[in-house]
C-alpha cells in the first residue's frame, strides 16, 4: 500500500483505526441510546424540509442533473436518489439545518449525529448494490454500531481539545469520525483506513467564522453535511489504493499540529469505548443552541410566574443570567442579529422570545418574528455573568452540567426568585423524563411529511427496537422515502 513516506502513522490515527476495526460494542445502553438518536436525528431532518432555505441545497449538484441515480442513496422525506457523496451531503444538511439534533459539550462542542449523513448514505448505497448482485443488505444494527463509534471518535477527541479556540470549526471532527466509520463500512483494509483518516486530517479545515459576529450565517447549517460528504469521498479515494500521509498530524511545520493547532498535540481523557453515546445530550425541548437550553427552560418557568403576577415583558427592568464560561464565549451577544443562524446562537434572543410569547420554536428565528421591536428592547436588558462553579461542573466528566440561573427584576422594584436549572431535558440525568418527549417529537416530525397511513407504517417498525435493529438498511430507507407516503 502506497504512502507518502515510509515511517509509522501517528499514534492518534492508529488508535482511531484500530478502534473502528477491532472494538466490539457490548453496551446495551449505547445501542438503545443510538436507536433514540437515530429516531431524533431523522425527525430533525424531516422538520428541516419545511424550510426552502434548506430544500434548495438538497438533491444533485447541478440543476437538471439526474435526480434518481440507479441504486442511489435515498434522502428521507424526499424523492431523491443520489450518488453516495451527494446523498451524504443532502442527508447531513437536512439533519443539521435547524440545530435540533443531539449535542456533545466539552472542550470542543459539536453534534455527533451529524455523522449519520455519511453513515446512512453509505449503508443504503452498499445495501442496494449488494442486493442487486444477489447479496445481503446491511442491517440497522450495523448503522447503530457505526453511529456509536462515530460518536465516540468525535466526542473523545472533543473532551480535552478545543478547536474553536484556534478558530477551527468542530466539523473537522465530523469529517474525521465519518471517514473512519464509513471506510469500515466500505470494507477498507487497515492500511487503506489509515490512509483515509490521514487524508481527513490533511484537508484544509473549516474556519469557525461563519458561527460568529460579524460573519454568522447559514453555512453553519450545512457545514456538517459538507464534512460528512467529504468523508465519504475521502474513504472512496482511499479504497482505490491512494497513498496516505503517516505524520499528517505531527510533521514539523507542515503537519496539522504546527500548521493549524498552534503546536499543541491532542490530549486524551479516556480510551475509545462507548462513553459518548451513553452520555450524549438530546436536544428535545427547544431548537436552541445547547448552552442555552436550561436558560430557555428557566425563561419559560419565569413567563408562567409572570402571568400569575399579571406582569409582562414590558414590566422587566433587567435580567441577570448566571452561567458557565462556554455560554459566555459562544452565545452571549449584544447588537444587531442579521439572520436566523445568528439568532439561534444568541442567548439573549433565545430567552427574550419565551418571556414575550411563552414559546420558542424554529419559526421564531425567522425575520417576521424578529422584526418585533420588543425582542431587541428586551435583549439589551439581559446580561450574562460567569459562575466559576457552573464552569467547573460543565467540565466535570461525572456531572457534565449545562447550568443557567435566571433572575428577573421589574421596574416597580420587585423581582422573581432566581430560577436555576443545572441539567436540561435530554441530559443523561433527565433521560427518563426526556425519552417520552423525544418519541413525541419524532411522531410530530413524521406527520409533517408523511400521510397518516404511512406514518403509522414507519412508527410500527422504527419504534420497535428489536424489529428495527434487525431490518435491512435499504428497507428502512425505502420506507422513509416512499413517494406514495409523502404528502404533496
Q: Strand portion, in percent?
A: 5-15%
Q: Specify the biggest β-sheet.
A: 4 strands, mixed
Structural class computed from helices and strand pairing: alpha+beta
Radius of gyration: 22 Å
What general form does the structure show?
globular
What is the overall number of helices?
A: 22
Strand order, largest beta sheet: 6-5-7-8
Distance between the termini: 51 Å
* Nearest-integer average pLDDT: 95
- What is the share of helical residues? 40-55%
Low-confidence runs (pLDDT<50, min 5 residues)? Answer: none
Give the total of beta strands: 8
Order of helices and strands: HHHEEHEEHHHHHHHHEHHHHHEHEEHHHH
What topology does this entry show?
Layout (H helix, E strand, L loop, with lengths): L10 H12 L5 H21 L3 H4 L17 E2 L6 E2 L1 H13 L7 E2 L3 E2 L5 H17 L7 H21 L10 H15 L4 H13 L16 H21 L16 H5 L14 H5 L13 H17 L6 E8 L1 H7 L8 H4 L3 H11 L9 H4 L2 H7 L2 E5 L1 H8 L8 E7 L8 E3 L9 H19 L2 H11 L2 H6 L2 H8 L8
Parallel strand pairs: 5-6
Antiparallel strand pairs: 1-2, 3-4, 5-7, 7-8
Helix pairs in contact: 1-7, 1-8, 2-4, 2-6, 2-19, 4-5, 4-9, 5-7, 5-9, 6-7, 7-8, 7-9, 8-9, 12-15, 15-17
Short description:
The chain has helices at residues 11-22, 28-48, 52-55, 84-96, 116-132, 140-160, 171-185, 190-202, 219-239, 256-260, 275-279, 293-309, 325-331, 340-343, 347-357, 367-370, 373-379, 388-395, 431-449, 452-462, 465-470, 473-480, and strands at 73-74, 81-82, 104-105, 109-110, 316-323, 382-386, 404-410, 419-421. The chain is of the alpha+beta class and 488 residues long. The longest helix has 21 residues, at 28-48.
Amino acid at each position: 500500500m502506497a504512502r507518502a513516506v515510509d515511517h509509522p502513522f501517528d499514534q492518534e490515527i492508529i488508535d482511531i483505526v484500530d478502534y473502528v476495526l477491532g472494538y466490539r460494542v457490548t453496551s446495551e445502553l449505547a445501542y438503545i441510546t443510538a436507536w433514540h438518536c437515530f429516531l431524533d436525528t431523522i425527525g430533525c431532518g424531516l422538520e428541516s424540509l419545511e424550510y426552502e432555505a434548506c430544500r434548495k441545497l438538497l438533491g444533485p449538484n447541478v440543476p437538471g442533473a439526474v435526480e434518481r441515480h440507479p441504486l442511489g442513496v435515498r434522502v428521507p422525506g424526499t424523492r431523491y436518489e443520489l450518488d453516495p457523496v451527494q446523498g451524504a451531503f443532502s442527508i447531513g444538511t437536512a439533519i443539521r439545518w435547524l440545530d435540533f439534533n443531539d449535542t456533545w459539550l466539552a472542550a470542543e462542542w459539536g453534534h455527533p449525529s451529524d455523522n449519520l449523513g455519511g453513515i446512512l448514505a453509505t449503508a443504503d448505497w452498499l445495501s442496494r448494490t449488494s442486493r442487486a448482485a444477489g447479496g445481503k443488505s446491511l442491517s440497522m444494527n450495523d448503522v447503530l454500531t457505526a453511529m456509536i463509534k462515530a460518536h465516540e471518535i468525535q466526542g473523545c477527541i472533543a473532551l480535552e481539545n478545543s478547536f474553536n479556540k484556534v478558530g477551527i470549526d468542530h466539523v473537522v471532527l465530523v469529517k474525521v469520525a465519518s471517514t473512519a466509520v464509513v471506510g469500515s463500512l466500505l470494507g477498507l483494509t487497515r492500511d487503506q483506513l489509515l490512509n483515509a483518516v490521514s487524508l481527513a486530517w490533511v484537508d484544509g479545515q473549516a474556519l469557525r467564522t461563519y458561527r460568529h459576529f460579524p460573519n454568522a450565517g447559514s453555512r453553519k447549517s450545512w457545514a456538517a453535511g459538507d464534512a460528512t460528504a467529504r468523508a465519504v469521498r475521502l474513504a472512496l479515494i482511499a479504497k482505490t489504493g491512494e497513498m496516505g500521509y503517516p505524520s499528517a498530524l505531527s510533521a514539523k511545520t507542515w503537519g496539522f499540529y504546527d500548521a493549524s493547532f498552534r503546536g499543541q498535540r491532542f490530549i486524551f481523557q479516556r480510551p475509545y469505548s462507548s462513553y459518548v453515546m451513553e452520555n450524549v445530550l438530546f436536544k428535545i425541548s427547544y431548537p436552541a443552541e445547547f448552552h442555552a437550553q436550561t436558560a430557555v427552560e428557566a425563561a419559560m418557568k419565569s413567563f408562567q410566574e409572570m402571568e400569575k403576577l399579571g406582569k409582562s415583558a414590558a414590566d422587566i427592568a433587567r435580567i441577570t443570567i448566571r452561567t458557565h464560561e462556554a455560554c459566555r464565549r459562544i452565545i452571549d451577544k449584544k447588537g444587531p442579529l442579521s439572520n436566523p443562524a445568528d439568532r439561534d446562537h444568541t442567548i439573549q434572543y433565545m430567552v427574550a422570545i419565551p418571556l414575550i410569547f411563552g414559546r420558542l420554536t424554529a419559526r421564531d428565528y425567522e425575520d417576521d418574528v424578529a422584526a418585533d421591536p420588543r425582542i431587541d428592547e428586551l435583549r439589551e436588558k439581559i446580561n450574562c455573568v460567569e459562575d466559576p462553579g457552573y464552569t467547573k461542573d460543565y467540565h466535570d466528566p461525572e456531572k457534565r452540567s449545562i447550568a443557567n440561573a435566571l433572575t428577573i427584576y421589574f421596574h416597580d422594584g420587585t423581582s422573581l426568585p432566581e430560577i436555576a436549572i443545572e441539567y436540561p431535558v435530554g441530559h443523561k440525568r433527565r433521560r427518563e423524563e426526556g425519552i417520552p418527549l423525544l418519541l413525541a417529537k419524532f411522531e410530530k416530525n413524521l406527520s409533517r411529511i408523511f400521510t397518516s397511513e404511512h406514518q403509522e407504517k414507519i412508527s410500527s417498525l422504527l419504534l420497535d427496537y428489536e424489529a428495527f435493529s434487525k431490518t435491512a438498511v435499504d428497507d428502512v430507507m425505502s420506507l422513509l422515502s416512499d413517494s406514495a407516503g409523502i404528502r404533496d
